């Protein structure tokens, strides 16, 4: 208990809400990397490259995510989050500035792809990891608030980037955005403090059983991957994100081909989806602090199924709207709950590294869902119904996985109480 009291004394010296919203500022800058679609065509035109070749830079930045998340998680778990956040911010700013100076494709892949990918993901895991250590009582809400920055950054820097390109050209725009990221990140980094690295068992005493009724033991990644729970948690990430990725990667095509929307209206729905994704991170994250993570996941999979069924059976704009809004909210909720769920199942001590391995579940879904959906649409002349049916099946599998994890944790809790 003395250790717990010392942690409380340490955190009272820091305004945790200042740390939280400074972390959001960092993540907003990192969200700018997801606005790549604004830059791809101007870059291709300016350098005589093909758009698919240019797009590979973004694929690299996102595709390498598990590696920097694992590396960053290791550093953050050692209590060096603030230093890592500053380093990643400098890396991200440099990646944009250097991308603007790139004259060869390999240079773009190295700067925007490799450096940008590391800058994005090192900062992401450090901000999420560090913030949650300040909020053991509100992990879901905290995680949800922090990662709204990704969507917010995309919504801010996509139109800003487009305007800057019109005014100054794509090369200068990259340099200008790098400078903007640098200024914002330096200010926010100055407000961030490292959270104390507490023992998971002691932190558990501070958390209500209603919020986190799991056996919060400290696993390292080697021990974690030997457990059945790891595979259930990683598969929850994959199944939870699958349907959202189906929509986010093909929303405009689905709206135009299946629901008769104009390109402008379809683009508006894409923006609505992005806003719902941000909102869902906060709403589902906060709800999971009340209902428990697993119960909330089970409810979320029901919402996913209903959203997909609306697009299958309601052949009108309203059906598309219901499905798109529902799936946007749910994809955001999955992102918000996965880090807290990882902590509750595998402990706080190595939460950064462990989350990096759990994140592989998202990587698998991100590799399969968009490609499968595009293939289905192409083979069926723009009809994506089979993709929606697949999504419903995946949601049912996700519900079963969540229920199975709940039963396993209930058994572990019962065993622990019996041995106490």
From TrEMBL:
<feature type="transmembrane region" description="Helical">
    <location>
        <begin position="54"/>
        <end position="72"/>
    </location>
</feature>
<feature type="transmembrane region" description="Helical">
    <location>
        <begin position="84"/>
        <end position="103"/>
    </location>
</feature>
<dbReference type="InterPro" id="IPR020846">
    <property type="entry name" value="MFS_dom"/>
</dbReference>
<keyword id="KW-1133">Transmembrane helix</keyword>
<keyword id="KW-0472">Membrane</keyword>
<protein>
    <recommendedName>
        <fullName>Major facilitator superfamily (MFS) profile domain-containing protein</fullName>
    </recommendedName>
</protein>
<feature type="transmembrane region" description="Helical">
    <location>
        <begin position="140"/>
        <end position="161"/>
    </location>
</feature>
<keyword id="KW-0813">Transport</keyword>
<dbReference type="InterPro" id="IPR036259">
    <property type="entry name" value="MFS_trans_sf"/>
</dbReference>
<keyword id="KW-0812">Transmembrane</keyword>
<feature type="transmembrane region" description="Helical">
    <location>
        <begin position="173"/>
        <end position="192"/>
    </location>
</feature>
<feature type="transmembrane region" description="Helical">
    <location>
        <begin position="230"/>
        <end position="252"/>
    </location>
</feature>
<dbReference type="GO" id="GO:0005886">
    <property type="term" value="C:plasma membrane"/>
</dbReference>
<dbReference type="GO" id="GO:0022857">
    <property type="term" value="F:transmembrane transporter activity"/>
</dbReference>
<feature type="transmembrane region" description="Helical">
    <location>
        <begin position="353"/>
        <end position="372"/>
    </location>
</feature>
<feature type="transmembrane region" description="Helical">
    <location>
        <begin position="109"/>
        <end position="128"/>
    </location>
</feature>
<dbReference type="InterPro" id="IPR011701">
    <property type="entry name" value="MFS"/>
</dbReference>
<dbReference type="InterPro" id="IPR052983">
    <property type="entry name" value="MFS_Riboflavin_Transporter"/>
</dbReference>
<dbReference type="Pfam" id="PF07690">
    <property type="entry name" value="MFS_1"/>
</dbReference>
<feature type="transmembrane region" description="Helical">
    <location>
        <begin position="384"/>
        <end position="405"/>
    </location>
</feature>
<feature type="transmembrane region" description="Helical">
    <location>
        <begin position="296"/>
        <end position="314"/>
    </location>
</feature>
<feature type="domain" description="Major facilitator superfamily (MFS) profile">
    <location>
        <begin position="18"/>
        <end position="410"/>
    </location>
</feature>
<feature type="transmembrane region" description="Helical">
    <location>
        <begin position="320"/>
        <end position="341"/>
    </location>
</feature>
<feature type="transmembrane region" description="Helical">
    <location>
        <begin position="20"/>
        <end position="39"/>
    </location>
</feature>
<feature type="transmembrane region" description="Helical">
    <location>
        <begin position="264"/>
        <end position="284"/>
    </location>
</feature>
